[in-house]
Amino acid sequence: MKLPAEMTLAQIAHVIGGRVAGDADIKVSSVAVSPLQATENDLALVFDEKLVAQLDDCKAKALVVTPKAKTERPCIVVERPMLAVQKMLSAVAVKRHSPATGVHPTAVVDPSVQIGEGVAIGPLVVIGPGCKIGAKTVIHPGTIIGAKVEIGEACSIGAGCLIADVVKIGNRVILQQGAVLGSDGFGYVTERESNLERRLNGNRDIKDESNPHLKIPHIGTIIIEDDVEIGSCTTIDRSTMGATTIGQGTKIDNLVMIAHNCRIGKEVLIIGTTAIGGSSTIEDRAIISGSACIADHIKIGKDAIVEGMAGVIANVPAAEVQVGAPAVERRQHIESLIRIKRLKETNADVKDLKQRVAKLEALLAEKALEKV
After folding, report:
1. 140 an active-site residue?
2. Out of 140, 218, 260, 333, which one is annotated catalytic?
3. pTM: predicted TM-score of the whole model, two decimal places
4. Nearest 5°: CA angle at 294, between 199 and 196?
């Protein structure tokens, strides 16, 4: 990654919040993508302990390391590596293309829409009646916004997003390309007891007759609080009644599905391809890892962690780590795996024990006959 200009270690340390060990006046012109591919003019980020052990193979002029790393090479020492990366990339990032301030001629904006100062509305955007767009918000090309939608200040609405009626979005919210807010929840009912209901009630009398699914209207909304980011092609359903809510500072990855009536707390992390069933609650700072599936009406406590590909069918206590399908506490899951790996040995032991018992029983029977 090329830097805007050559920089000394002292200058870089000032930007990323580190301290220089060695010659602070050494200049670098770029940051290596990988320490092992670095050139002599590069600065290399070496945070992985395995890479620290291979520093002799790194040709970089200088390094960024943690306090644990031992090196004689000029370096910048940082306490929080990823925070240093965040600061560095923020400082050198090239500004991405954005629509110009104002309304593009090809956009279709209802005359009743209230548009704040400095708003940019890109090509082929459609905005329905009664909407409010806060100051300095940017709406990228091809986005469609329904009626009575409220979007706060300094938001970024990515290209091709779909925002349905009466959704409320706070300030500084980021929607990546193709995010969908406000779809109807998946809710249906039958006039008569369905075969599924019969089976759940223990009745195996299955009736082979039509019993159509009747759509339940979803008349609620979605509330997205301040500083939320929602990834590409993620979908969030409106509630049946009331609101599906996403708490302040929560970050949601790509291809996530959040069903109707869910309540997501503050500063939650939800990783890609996760599916969260209806009326579930995820409390503050919980982490839901990739491809997790959470059943309806589940509560996940504060600071809990659901590991990747877990299948959650029961409530998760606060600060607990769960893994597996069905999901259980991590230590319990590991103990179960250990028992499974020992099954072959255990079965052999049981077989041997049975043979010994059989021989003992036969011996005892012979002795009993001798006494008769």
Report:
1. no
2. 260
3. 0.88
4. 15
